[in-house]
Amino acid sequence: MALKGIALLVLIFVTNTLAACPMYWTEFNGNCYLYVGTPASNWKRAEEYCVNGGSHLASVHSKEEDDYIRDLWRMSRNEQTFFLDALKEKVAPISVAPFVYIGLNDRAKEGTYEWTDGSPVDYVNWMRNNPSSDPALSGREDGVFIWDRKNEGKWNDVRTKSPILIGPFICKRPAI
Ligand SMILES: [Ca+2]
Ligand SMILES: [Ca+2]
């Protein structure tokens, strides 16, 4: 009996130790998420960072997942990671609102959106007037971030290689 009890405890210990997600990642509905504030990056380098660690920029498939990611970001973010203050004079103040990169993009075909992790596009949460309706703009804006303009946390298509839009991002991988 005692041995069985110990075996059960060991099993619980091992199960908990071999958590479904790597250290520092958080689990939600069978996936693991990592908020990365450092290094802050543009969309392209953010995706490269995730890929180097065996993941991709986060894909979002439901309002629940959207809310989860937004909460993770709002809890984790440090306003110091936004390097835009020095640019207030040069860009519209509106751009200073916090943002976080996710994996949605239309790099392969303009106007056809895909997730970098290859999952289907079955949910979107675009900000009004996005993706940009001006073809000159949308043709250059092929990555996406969640933007807290007016604390709305909606999605905006943006340039993937911007030297200015340097910010945090969220990587996602399946739980083990
Ligand atoms: Ca585009
Ligand atoms: Ca846009």
Describe the protein:
This protein has 176 residues and is α+β, with helices and mostly antiparallel strands. 25% of the residues lie in helices and 30% in strands. It contains four helices and eight strands; from the N terminus they run H-E-E-H-E-H-E-E-H-E-E-E. It has helices at residues 2-17, 43-52, 63-76, 135-138; strands at residues 26-28, 31-41, 56-57, 99-109, 112-115, 141-147, 154-159, 167-174. The strands form two sheets. It has a four-stranded antiparallel sheet, with helices on both faces. The longest helix has 16 residues, at 2-17. The protein is globular, with a radius of gyration of 19 Å. Residues 106, 110, 138-139, 141-142, 157 line the site of one calcium ion.
Keyphrases for this structure?
176 residues, alpha+beta, four-stranded antiparallel beta sheet, 8 strands, binds calcium ion, CTDL_fold, signal, Brevican core protein
Bound molecules: calcium ion
Q: End-to-end distance, in Å?
A: 32 Å
User: Strand tally, please?
Assistant: 8
SS field, number of helical segments: 4
Strand order of the largest sheet: 1-2-8-3
State the helical fraction: 25-40%
Q: What percentage of amino acids are in beta strands? A: 25-35%
Taking pLDDT < 50 over at least 5 consecutive residues as the criterion, the unreliable ranges are none
How would you state the average pLDDT, rounded? 85
Order of helices and strands: HEEHEHEEHEEE
The biggest beta sheet reads: 4 strands, antiparallel
Q: Given the helix and strand composition, which structural class is it?
A: alpha+beta
- Please state the overall shape, judged from the principal axes of the Cα atoms: globular
Indicate the radius of gyration in whole angstroms: 19 Å
Pfam families: Lectin_C (PF00059)
Domain C-type lectin: 28-157
Protein name: Brevican core protein
Signal peptide: 1-19
